[in-house]
Automatic annotation (TrEMBL):
Keyword Cell membrane assigned: yes
Record-stated family: Belongs to the dihydroorotate dehydrogenase family. Type 2 subfamily.
This protein's UniProt keywords: Cell membrane, Flavoprotein, FMN, Membrane, Oxidoreductase, Pyrimidine biosynthesis
GO molecular function, one term: dihydroorotate dehydrogenase (quinone) activity
Listed NCBIfam families: PRK05286.1-2, PRK05286.2-5, pyrD_sub2
Note on how the cofactor is bound: Binds 1 FMN per subunit.
Gene, per the UniProt record: pyrD
Matches recorded under SUPFAM superfamilies: FMN-linked oxidoreductases
Subunit details: Monomer.
UniProt keyword annotation of Membrane present: yes
Cellular component per GO, a single term: cytoplasm
Catalytic reactions on record: (S)-dihydroorotate + a quinone = orotate + a quinol
Protein name, entry field: Dihydroorotate dehydrogenase (quinone)
Length: 342
């Protein structure tokens, strides 16, 4: 019903407008009597074999929601009722910012993908932290943090430390985002020297806490093997928890969508099925080259149980979905979990 009736209807409208409309409807209906229970009955699937212990945290199942969907932590309880094992909020910046000019979210329907140039639009770390403190579900939540657009790379560390402090008591793990293509200059922070310094300072702050939180690094799929080797060295040196592989890609290779249409859309990060194979390659490379020295959370092009198994077999400890969730519908998490149990 979702793919045959609702999805074609939604695709008549602007992608970002539809996202906000669907989120508003989900929050509205969740407040009605009996609805939370009905959602859980429909979408939550639990089984002992789905439980994962990663970075000292216990996940009810290995399927999480990637950052970008719930930027401001406004519907964590609602998403928990859709069966996710964990939810990642953000990307959050210290100060609120509107993001890039609209339109900035586009469907690439023939390829079951999305292109976005959102630009870290969010209400700021303090707002996200307050929302998380009010949540009622016990679902694990990750805080994806970044720098404000107006903050220079030389001052970027201050922004990451500020977000870390604001969110520390409200999240279960952190994700350092230096791999989005939509904030000018951000990807320069992926270079070995600035990235090592950034993660070392975050870890210094983290270990000063009574109960440190796991820190993951989210990387781009566009890194070459030499750069991935640097990532492995950096993880070992800074002793952060692990890697999220991968963010969106700036590549447009192999798309079914016409070149004219792609050029009309313009710049932005591509997600969804076109990213499936490359993200799996990155996961496999990191796991094999490091000797599984740290957990890798796999994300990129997961739209079926087969896609999920592919990444788990490549070495991923956990998975995240986003674009596949939009194209396949809310039943995708339960479908994957049931398949993993079988």
């Amino acid at each position: 019903m979702y793919k045959r009736l609702l999805l074609p209807l939604l695709f008549f409208f602007d992608a970002e407008q539809v996202h906000h409309w669907v989120c508003d409807m989900l929050r509205f209906f969740y407040k009605l009597p009996l609805v939370p229970g009905i959602l859980k009955k429909l979408y939550v699937y639990e089984h002992p074999s789905l439980v994962r212990e990663v970075a000292g945290l216990r996940f009810k199942n290995p399927i999480g929601l990637a950052a970008g969907f719930d930027k401001n932590a406004e519907m964590v309880d609602e998403l928990a009722a859709l069966g996710f094992g964990f939810v990642e909020i953000g990307t959050v910046t210290p100060r609120p910012q509107p993001g890039n000019d609209k339109p900035r979210l586009f469907r690439v329907k023939e390829d079951k993908g999305l292109i976005n140039r959102m630009g870290f639009n969010n209400k700021g770390a303090a707002v996200a932290a307050a929302k998380l403190r009010a949540r009622q579900s016990d679902i694990l939540v990750g805080g994806n943090i970044g720098k404000n657009k107006t903050t220079s790379n030389e001052k970027a560390l201050d922004d990451y430390l500020s977000c870390f402090e604001d969110l520390f008591e409200a999240v279960d793990y952190f994700v350092v985002n230096v791999s989005s293509p939509n904030t000018p200059g951000l990807r320069d922070l992926q270079e070995k020297e600035p990235l090592t310094h950034l993660l070392r300072e975050l870890q210094k702050l983290n270990t000063s806490k009574k109960a440190p939180k796991p820190i993951f690094l989210k990387i781009a799929p566009d890194l070459n093997n030499s750069q991935l080797d640097d990532i492995i060295d950096i993880i070992r040196e800074t002793k952060i928890a692990g890697v999220i592989a991968t963010n969106t890609t700036i590549s447009r290779k192999g798309l079914k969508t016409t070149e004219t249409e792609v050029e009309k859309i313009g710049a932005g990060g591509l997600s969804g099925q076109p990213l499936r194979y490359r993200s799996t390659e990155v996961i496999r490379y990191l796991c094999e080259k490091s000797g599984n020295a740290f957990p890798v959370i796999g994300v990129g092009g997961i739209a079926s149980a087969q896609d999920a198994r592919e990444k788990l077999e490549a070495g991923a400890a956990l998975l995240q979905i986003y674009t596949g969730f939009i194209y396949e519908g809310p039943g995708l998490v339960r479908q994957i979990c049931q398949s993993l149990v079988k």
